[in-house]
Structure formats: structure tokens, C-alpha cells
Write a structure and sequence with these properties.
heterodimer; A: alpha+beta; two-stranded antiparallel sheet; 4 helices; globular; B: mainly alpha; elongated
Amino acid sequence: MSGRDYLGEFEHIILLALLRLDDRAYGVTVRQEIEFRTKREVSIGAVYATLDRLETKGYVKSRLGEPTPERGGRSKRFFQVTAKGVTAVSRTHRALRSMTEGLGLVRSYV
Amino acid sequence: MMSQDFSVQPPRIATWLIGLFTSDNEAEAIPGDLLEEFSHLASKAGVAIARRWYWRQTGKTITHLAGGAFRGAPWFMAAVVVGGFLLHGFLHALPDKVLSEVTNRYLAFWSSHFQAYMWVLNGMMIAHLMASLLVGCMVALAAKGREMVATVTLALVYCGMGGVAVVGAALVWVATHRPMNVAWLLACWDPFAIIMGGLIVRTRRAQGRVCLPKPLGTTGV
């Protein structure tokens, strides 16, 4: 297994947000979910740059929704985690759990 | 919960800037997401706060999109910028060579056509700007969807070179007290002309994109 199979921190966070939001996952909800849970300001550009990277890797897929008036007639781009993405999350999760095992300070991390 | 006020619009310049840097995939989603959140924030916290938030998001978003464009195709982008640099060097030298040929050939008569000679000399600056504009257009065409990132990068290279030249000239002036030749400072307009070339191509492409039929329903990407 190569090191490339592991997710970066923000990639990991984004995939977890997509899994939480399920079929409601698009730019706004993903950004807000991350801000709400991590308490850090995230730009929409950072979200899309990471989502595009994840899509290139085959970890997520996207589709366009219907245009809505509150968006000036623009469509939402919905994202969904693929099976390959779920595997990558699990692998990274296991690696983090393995690395944090026995460390009292971060016992509750995973 | 307060209703959202859709009549309040985000800063137009910020929206325009974001439109310049978004790829075809994100051309609808990113401005739409920002507008949706802006409207929500404006009705909840006030227009001033929403506008500040929008500008902050614009700055960060453009930075990430530019970075993403480079990370997505680093060798391609480097090749486009280096190609633009070389092309600029070649095209920029052309007007000087032409003028040199003309003055060499008609040197015996140029004193009698002094005004025409001066006119041509002044026209050199315009020729240089046109060359930079052409290079900006060609770099933007080659960059395929990353027009602004490529042209801004090339312009920044020239700004950096200009900065080094200014510091160098200032140091020489301090050391020797010789009068500085500031004629080359006219080349400071070149980066603007290169970016203008990128803007022209980007705007034309965006207009073409608007003319395309919108995808109906859902589209797998």
C-alpha cells in the first residue's frame, strides 16, 4: 500500500462532511458543516479545490441540481462519496486510530 | 427566522473577480453558493457584514482556485508561462529591430524627417504594449480554462523583474550619482497589457459559455 492512499487532513474532513450530509451535500452545506464542527473559517474556494482533487482521485462524484432563484438562477453542485472514497476514509481512520492508541491525551480523538 | 432579501446584491467587482478565476466546472456552483450565503447573511446580520464576508471569501477563494490550477497541472502551467515569457521576449524585440532597420536604411535622411522619426519612436511604446497584449491573449488561449492564473503569473514575473531592476538602478544611482535612465520604466505597463490579454480571452470564453445550452436536470460529472 502506498502513502498516496492516505487522505490529507482537509480531504479527510471534507469526506466526513459529505458522509454526514448525505444527499444534501453541496458547497454551502459542506462549508457550514465544517465551520460548525471544527470552529474554523473555511472558504468556499478551499472546499471546491479539495472536492475537485477528490473527484480526480475518484473519491467523490458530483452532479448538477436544478437552478434556484436564491442563487441567481444558478445550479447547485451536489457531491457524493464513492465506494473508493469510503475505503480511503476507513483506511485513514484506522491509521489515525493506530497512531493515537495508548496516547492518553488524545484517547478520545477517534 | 427572517426572510432572505434577494434584492441585496453582493459587490459586483468581487463577483466579477471570482468569475475570472473559476473553471467551467465551478462556473455556476461557486458564484451561486456565495450568493446564497450572502443573501442569508445579509438578512441575518446586515448588508455591511455580509459584504465584508463576501470580500473575505472572494480573496481566499481566488487564492485557492489559483493554487488549485497550479497543483492540478503544474508542468503544463509552467510550460505555458515559460512559453509566454519567451514569446514576449521575441515579440517585444521586433519593433526595435524594425525601427533599427528603418533608421539604418534612411539614416542620411532622418534629420529631414525628424518629426516622423520622433513619431515612430513614440509609437514604439504602443507597439510594445500591443506585443504584450498579444502575448497575454496567446498565453490565455494556451492555458485552456486557466487564463487568468497563467497571465497573472506571467505578469507577476515581469513585476518581479521590474522590482529588481528598480532596486538595482536605485543602488547604482546611490553609488555613482549618475542620472538614471527611466525610459525603461515605460515597460511597467507590459504586465497590465498581458493581464488585459488574459481578460479579453477569458471574457470571450465566458460569453461563449453563456451561449451554450444549460444542462437539464442532473448531470453526472
